[in-house]
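Board notes (copied after class):
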Amino acid sequence: MSEGKTPKQSLSERIPLWAMALGVLAVIAVVLVAIGSFGGDTLPERKGPPIEDLAVEKTVLDPGEIHLTVRNAGPDDVTVAQATVNDSYVNFTGGKRPIGRLGEEELKLDYPWIDGNPYAIGLLTSTGVVIPHTIDAAVETPEAGGNFLVSMILIGLYVGIIPVTLGMLALPLLRRGGRRWTSALIAFTVGLLAFLAIDGTLEAMDLAALGPGVFGGNALVFLAAGLAFLVLSGIDSYMKGRRRKSEKAGASAWHLALMVAIGIGLHNFGEGLAIGSAYAVGELALGSALIIGFAIHNTTEGLAIVAPLASQKPRLRSLLGLGLIAGGPAILGALAGGSVSSDEIAAALIGIGVGAILQVVVQLVPAMKDEDGKTFTPVPAGSPATGALALYLTGLR
């Protein structure tokens, strides 16, 4: 090769990388669409009876009426031909047209139910399959009107914003404790958040088990948690890139406090979601004991938010902002809980909170180090267990 001449580029080298990526994706999409459209015709027909799986996702009781929201969780279309309540055939509307795979339909059963009585419902499909559903104790479903809105806002204030803000009042005490006790309190926060993550995971899995499993059940919980963890990790990386100064332990104090507030806020969203769901179906008694129990439980969360700020002198409005970030989602969760009809969707939302909390734990662990750079000295080593125990005890109601 003579000097001064550049080697000739091949065709693949001359095509921009983004164009090659789009081309590959286009080919994959065309092949998959073709398989989906014409592949079924090349396969042998399935023999045997149709597979019908109809899941009841939501039950609403109005005077003289039972409303059921059902979803087809099976591979074949389902048509509801008849309905029974306590072995008696009843008139109903909806469901007369075939419900396709993953399709949703609302059935209205005409039946003069009696408050407090149990009812066994049977949905008879066009092929003779009976889909059972049980109402343990009939209670009229509260309307999601103005009173519901006010109630959910008050609950969010009582169990979210107010207790979290009260817990943040401990900041002046933290300033006088020194680095050693600040590290211990951050370790306490790690234990607290780890307990929240475990508790949230178990709660989400219980909710997912109640659903039909059509959206993945427990797999959906872990997928939501993983996506939340990755998204928040990306946001965190972006925030670190824009920050000029950072502590050797990891993130800056304000950054840690903000991440803790976000993680706790997403957890409180899940907590509010559970409260709103229970209230919407009449399973929650809004007593003062319950409110006080949640308030005590969430006061420790406010303490966790200000733990990284022990050496700072933040403004009052900044602290109120952190309290709003951490406690405010309880209101949104309560409102959403009253309208979310799918247990699996509710479980996925809680899974998002779990992923956010785990990301915060990853952020806090480096900040547990003391003046000598040690993480598991006696006090910080025992603090995570103390934090988990404190949240467990305050969560007993």
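Comment from the instructor: Residues 244-250, 285-290 have pLDDT under 50 and may be disordered. Residues 208 and 219 are 9 Å apart (CA to CA).
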